[in-house]
Amino acid sequence: MENIPADGGFITAINHNSYLDMFSYGHFQYNSGRVPRFLAKAALFKAPVVGTLLRGTGQIPVYRESTNAVGAFRAAVDAVGRGECVAFYPEGTLTRDPDQWPMTAKTGVARAALLTRAPVIPVAQWGANLAMPPYAKEKKVRFFPRKTLQVKAGPPVDLDRFYDKEPTPEVLKEVTEVIMAAITSLLEELRGEKAPEKPYDLREVRARQRREAAGEGTK
């Protein structure tokens, strides 16, 4: 955790492969002395245990596909401006990659990074998914034998070349890809293996499935 800034506002960008990894990352970040504020799906704030924790610690709910989503982004930017750490899960949901590598991501973290110019710390984690795989049913949860939960923070992502550019969709996409590449590189270190050259693209997969379904329907 030597790459976690000692002071000033910053952003962490984290891969997401288990419902448990929020706790492993939170524990890691808390031990660094810099308590994070999470951007989390609004639905989680209604969950019995997790919701109580999120509300009680001042986390930021994200209401997807609504005007409230803009409010969440502004709250995150304001928090960074006040010198806080704000944690982004750029993928927006648990990875759907069959081998649990990071997927293509949404551009919210890129927009926040360019607007605040705060350090963006990539964080990779592995191990929570071995106890509770993404979207696992109860029978697939395996707490024993005990799993080792690994979390690794890298140096700030170099985004200097983007700061003077207009934040067009193309620029935001490129910034997002640079951030996700840094996370993936850290995850390669933790796993001791290489990631696929092309990240899993959920939208691309769903579009192909729709095309295939439409083709079957016309036969």
TrEMBL record:
Pfam families: Acyltransferase. Keywords: Acyltransferase, Transferase. It is an enzyme of class 2 (transferase). GO terms for molecular function: 1-acylglycerol-3-phosphate O-acyltransferase activity. GO terms for cellular component: plasma membrane. Its EC number is 2.3.1.-. It comes from the Bacteria. GO terms for biological process: phosphatidic acid biosynthetic process. Residues 10-128 form the Phospholipid/glycerol acyltransferase domain. Coiled coil: none annotated. Residues 197-219 are annotated as: Disordered. This is 1-acyl-sn-glycerol-3-phosphate acyltransferase.
